[in-house]
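User: Show me a protein chain along with its predicted structure.
Assistant: Here is one chain, sequence first, then structure tokens.
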Amino acid sequence: MNASNKTAPTAVTVAEFIDSVPTERRQDEARILLEIFGRASGQSAVMWGPSIIGFGSSHYRYATGREGDTATIGFSPRKAKISLYTARNFREFPELLERLGAHELAVGCLYIKKLADVDLTVLEELLTRSYEVARFDFDALATDN
């Protein structure tokens, strides 16, 4: 069963998307994150859906039969907070989260109000480790859910 995934790669360029972000601060933060995510993943940025900048691609398959592809790591410079995504779970790295700075966690996301609130070196390490773990083990994890 392969249900249609709303969040798939698009033809919109990352630069076009960032230029369309309403505030200059969020545009600047997005450009900084582009560099950090690029180094963490070794991948080029691709738009996934209308608002997620993704790096790499991971295939998931749940026990229910649902499967698809998602960005291995990614982010979206949203109005209230920057949303960061991983194909795994940021909670796998509690020691890094403890050192990161001000953030909130949800099921598959990490939220930051502004980049100045976090340690960018710790953020890059968190993203690098998240990418490495997801890249090698995502299919095994997804089949256990």
